[in-house]
TrEMBL record:
One of its GO terms (cellular component) is plasma membrane. It is found in: Cell membrane. It is a multi-pass membrane protein. It comes from Myxacorys almedinensis A. This is Biotin transporter.
Length: 215
C-alpha cells in the first residue's frame, strides 16, 4: 500500500507575482522626442504643394492646410515609440503648458483650462495611447499605421467636443460671444480634413522609419 502525502506536505505553488509597470530607457528617449516634436509641430503650419509640372520659374507653391503638425506629431511618436512613450510625451507637454511655459498655440498657464481648445489638448493623452497600442498590435504596414493614427485623431475630437459641451454646460465659456455650433465648426469640422491629410503623411513617414530601423 502506498502512502499519500498529507495535504500539509503537498507542494504549494507560490502565488503569481503582480507584474510591475516598467519604463525602458528607449521609451524615455522616445517620450523626449515626442515632447519636442509636439512643441515644434505646434509652431509649424502644415502645407502641401502641387505636382512638379505645376511649378513655374523654379518656385514651389505651398498651400496651407489650415492646421499645424501638432496632432501629427502626437500620432508619429505613437507609431514609432509605442503607447507608453506617447502618453508620457503628452503628459509632459500638458504639464509644461499648464505650468506657464508657452508651448500651446496661444500661450500657456492655468488660465488655458478655460480655453475652448483645451479639451483637444487633453485628448492627446488617450489618443497617444490608442495610436501607440494599435500601431504595435500588428506588423508595420502602411494601412495599419494610418488606421492607428486616424483612431487617435477620432479620440482627440471626441474628448475635445465633450470638453466643449461640458464648458458650455458649466458656463466656463461665453456662449453669447462664441455659440456652441460655431465653436464645433471652428475646432472640429473645419480642421478635420487638414488633420486627416497630416495623419496620412505621418503614416507614410512612420512606415518608412520603422522599415529603416527594422522594427
Amino acid at each position: 500500500m502506498t502512502m499519500r502525502p498529507s495535504p500539509s506536505r503537498r507542494r504549494r505553488t507560490p502565488p503569481a507575482k503582480p507584474q510591475r509597470f516598467k519604463i525602458t530607457l528607449t521609451e524615455l528617449l522616445w517620450a523626449l522626442i515626442g515632447l519636442l516634436l509636439t512643441i515644434g509641430g505646434t509652431l509649424l503650419k502644415a502645407s502641401t504643394t502641387g505636382l512638379p509640372w505645376t511649378w513655374a520659374n523654379g518656385q514651389v507653391p505651398l498651400h496651407f492646410l489650415g492646421v499645424s503638425y501638432q496632432t501629427g506629431a502626437v500620432m508619429l511618436v505613437g507609431c514609432l515609440g509605442g503607447q507608453n512613450a506617447a502618453v508620457m510625451s503628452q503628459i509632459a507637454y500638458l504639464a509644461l503648458g499648464l505650468a506657464g511655459f508657452e508651448v500651446f498655440s496661444q500661450g500657456g498657464g492655468l488660465d488655458y483650462l478655460t480655453e475652448p481648445t483645451f479639451g483637444y489638448l487633453l485628448g492627446f493623452v488617450p489618443a497617444a495611447w490608442i495610436c501607440g497600442y494599435i500601431a504595435f498590435k500588428a506588423p508595420p504596414r502602411l494601412e495599419s499605421l494610418a488606421f492607428s493614427g486616424l483612431c487617435g485623431l477620432m479620440v482627440v475630437h471626441t474628448v475635445g467636443i465633450s470638453y466643449l459641451l461640458l464648458s458650455y454646460l458649466l458656463n466656463w465659456l461665453d456662449a453669447a460671444s462664441v455659440p456652441l455650433t460655431k465653436a464645433l465648426m471652428m475646432y472640429s469640422v473645419t480642421l478635420l480634413p487638414g488633420q486627416v491629410a497630416v495623419i496620412c503623411a505621418i503614416a507614410v513617414l512612420a512606415y518608412v522609419l520603422r522599415r529603416v530601423m527594422f522594427y
